[in-house]
Predict the structure.
Amino acid sequence: MTDTIDTLLNLIQAARKAGADAADALMVSSASLSVGRRLDKPERLERSESLNFGLRVFVGKRQAVVSSTDMRPDTLAGLVDRAVSMARIVPADEFAGLADPRQLTETFPELDLCDQVEATTGGLIERARAVEAAALAVSGVTNSEGAEATWGRSDVTLVASNGFAQRYSRSRFSAAASVVAGSGDAMQSESEHSSTIYQKDLWTAERIGRQAGEKAVAKLNPRKVESARVPVVFDPEVASGLLGSLASAISGNTIARGTSFLKDSLGKRIFPESVTVWDDPFIERGLRSKPFDGEGIQPIRRPVIHDGYLTTWIMDLRSSRQLGLTSTGHAARGTGGPPAPSPSNLFFAPGRISRDQLLRDVGTGFYVTGLMGQGNSVVTGDFSQGATGFWIENGVLSYPVSEVTVAGNLRQMFLNMVLADDLDHRFGIDAPTVAIDGMTLAGR
């Protein structure tokens, strides 16, 4: 750790000597191992190791970013000179700049983000084999599109001329299967996956494979339905995308540009009073947890939506300065560019009724398990996407449905949400089952 920080400190000192008024540097060292199998035969075995760093320099209010994978001293010296030269000629940005030292975090919570167990090739091969075998064992599954198992670890170090110098590590294990049910024109495909920080938290191979197979079989012989205005229920995996749309609409960059349908909604009620949305960077083993953001500022656990009311934008330093506010600690960055705002672990607080009760309350409607296409507009809030799923009759899933489009406007969709209590932190942006009344279903 000390060697990495010292290397970046030396890089920043060199930038200052070359004429930069301020600078920061990010280094990401990573390793990964991935295997893929299909029909019990190996298809892919990949091992990669990389070291990337990015240097951002400021000359007054002008900034430039350079990046490389080459840490040789002569290469670094050339990059420093190029970065400072670039910064001298680009347009000034009055909102650019490092954090004031008083803004920097001084506490670093232990979030348990790195499993010290490194996956073995043999272990991953066996996991991928077992996942596919479990999927193929499901009655009605006729083929496999493959199974995979992966492991990865990244070490992230951030150093800046304002005095910040810290590092953290993150690991990731995952496994997935994709299979086909039926034959000829009646084939249906589906997949399932699990991704966790710790290997022991990963779903079992049997569960992943079985659920992939059962989902594919359940989609066989879909029907078409008439166009109608009906309640639409979103499966948790799909409902998380609605939360992603909210995050995009309240991003500081979008708000500063005035290109969000929610740009005038701060402090206003945009969800039912029963709905709260949390952003929590401190979930232990959370997929989007972090002890500090990409600018050295500590994020905090906060309700983005509290009892239906929008309480905050998601901001980094630059967007907060544009808006005359304070950074919320949401800066995310890679080595090749400047920071930008992004949520941490974002999730709906669970509702108060079970999924089964929610379906019973709906009675008749459409249950969405998959969405296709890019039909959402952050500017207008318009929502329209191709969908697959199941028709709901008498409060239960009755038969599969395909070739339909669900449409509405996110502003009204948010206001009409009813949440079930089945929240599961699987993706980093998570939702329970969500019902929305009065959506348009375009069928035959």
About this structure: The chain has nine helices and 19 strands. Residues 73-89 form the longest helix (17 residues). The mean pLDDT is 96. Residues 2-217 form a domain with the PmbA/TldD fold fold (CATH 3.30.2290.10).
